[in-house]
């Protein structure tokens, strides 16, 4: 058996799993590390599994053993190209692949989940961190899409609704 020959593949946007499935059907040994991510979906927090390296996956290219040539790899559904320098494909060390697999299996990747900021509920008091209303206090009203929220700012003794980016507000601790 030959030594591993890991290559880095660039895949089409959000098609990591499609490329992985198609290459595995052709007897390719592929690896796409996954991580759990907390996201906002329709105003609610949900846990989803995503690629650790979006747009990329690894393949152990052994043409003499699997019959999977560079041409068949490049032309597989979901694959954009083999990453390399000029005509020479980039070889990924086996030690790096092993390290990533060990960290993923040990759950270290899931312990460092990427989480959305604290999602405020209606009536929660907020600080405005940025923009023309920086430093003012506000009250959370409701979400306005996935990246914005409507807050009530006390201006001239009246609560005025204003739409702000979620990055501009922070819930009181």
Helix and strand layout, with pairings?
Layout (H helix, E strand, L loop, with lengths): L5 E6 L4 H10 L3 E3 L2 E8 L2 E8 L4 E5 L2 H4 L3 H5 L4 E4 L1 E2 L2 E2 L1 E2 L1 H12 L2 H4 L13 E4 L8 E7 L4 E8 L2 E8 L3 E3 L2
Overall description:
- The chain has 173 residues and is an alpha+beta fold.
- The protein has two domains: 6-111, NusG, N-terminal domain (Alpha-Beta Plaits); 125-171, Roll (SH3 type barrels), CATH 2.30.30.30.
- The protein has five helices and 14 strands.
- The strands form four sheets. Strands 1, 2, 5, 6 and 9 form a five-stranded antiparallel β-sheet that branches. It has a five-stranded antiparallel β-sheet with strand order 13-12-11-10-14, with no helix packed on it. It has a two-stranded antiparallel sheet with strand order 3-4.
């Amino acid at each position: 058996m030959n030594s591993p020959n890991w290559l880095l593949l660039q895949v089409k946007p959000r098609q990591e799993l499609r490329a992985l499935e198609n290459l595995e059907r052709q007897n390719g040994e592929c690896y796409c590390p996954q991580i759990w991510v907390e996201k906002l979906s329709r105003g609610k927090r949900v846990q989803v599994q995503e690629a650790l390296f979006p747009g990329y996956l690894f393949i152990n290219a052994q043409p003499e053993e699997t019959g999977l040539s560079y041409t068949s790899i490049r032309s597989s559904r979901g694959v954009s190209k083999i990453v390399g320098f000029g005509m020479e494909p980039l070889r990924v060390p086996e030690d790096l692949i092993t390290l990533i697999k060990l960290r993923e299996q040990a759950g270290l990747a899931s312990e460092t989940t990427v989480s959305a900021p604290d999602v405020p509920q209606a009536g929660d008091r907020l600080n405005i961190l940025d923009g023309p209303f920086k430093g003012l206090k506000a009250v959370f009203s409701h979400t306005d899409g996935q990246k914005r929220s409507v807050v009530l700012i006390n201006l001239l003794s009246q609560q005025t609704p204003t739409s702000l980016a979620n990055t501009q507000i922070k819930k009181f601790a």
